[in-house]
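ARCHIVE RECORD
Type: protein–small molecule complex
Small molecule: S-adenosylmethionine
Source of inputs: curated submission
Record status: active
Notes field left blank by submitter.
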Amino acid sequence: MLKLWKKLPKGIKRKFANSWYELISRIDSGDDLAFMNHGFAPVEGKPEILDLAPKLEKHRYPIQHYHNLAATVEWTGKEAIEVSSGRGGGTSYVFDTFKPKSMIGIDLARTAVDYCNQTFQDRTGLSFKVGDAQNLPLEDACCDIMMNVESSLNYPDQDRFLAEVDRVLRPGGYFLLADYRSAKGMVSLRRRLEGLAYEVIRLEDISANIARALELDDPRKQEMLNRRVPALVRGLVAAFSFTGKAAREEIDRFQSGRKSYVFAVLRKPAA
Ligand SMILES: C[S@@+](CC[C@H](N)C(=O)[O-])C[C@H]1O[C@@H](n2cnc3c(N)ncnc32)[C@H](O)[C@@H]1O
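STRUCTURE (tokenized, with ligand):
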């Protein structure tokens, strides 16, 4: 099944990816999949960079990824958006920890958005909307911070997405991005980011941090996979969630430079 998947054209894989995120929301009624990113860990030394409440411990590395990116700017009193908020783990963590005035999570997967609106309904100021990153359901110049974690690689039209970021950000607003690409794709992404002509606050290659988190988080992901996923489709789900052999292959791609992971904090010029 895995061999067949590898041969499929990019467009079909993308369609499958969209259905996959809908499916995840249908099968995960709890918070096992509240985060869907590779995670972040220091390259050396203790892997923990945060004290976490016991119920969040299982999400340590994906939370560290969000925290590391969010901690680069001041959120107090700000109106923030996360595009591709998934199952809301990161959006709610950032909202609870950094306390913006308001935060809206936007995602293409309706089941994920419904889940988030129900799960986080007690947070005044936090809400979720269905929407496409390439055509955001938002007014012009409506937010101070726009966050996007490990999602833009799936958007068919990257230029359209960046034009939307520029449209909805207020002058002086921040664009926080964390994502990976193939070596060639990263050259295009960096060129596109330069094209925004925003002030570059941070622009770093964090591939080594991502590789370490993938390694450290793998036992938890394997345990979850064995517990939750039927044996028949386990190989495919493991490949799609970078677990087991797929995690080792992904680590190798980052270590060999075939893929890289960027961390970007950019500021739109003040008017
Ligand atoms: C790998 S998950 C990351 C979710 C979340 N940022 C996290 O780190 O847990 C990618 C997310 O992008 C969403 N997505 C894919 N294409 C999208 C689009 N065109 N517009 C908005 N969201 C999209 C998917 O539904 C999914 O929730």
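CURATOR ANNOTATION: The chain has one domain: 2-267.
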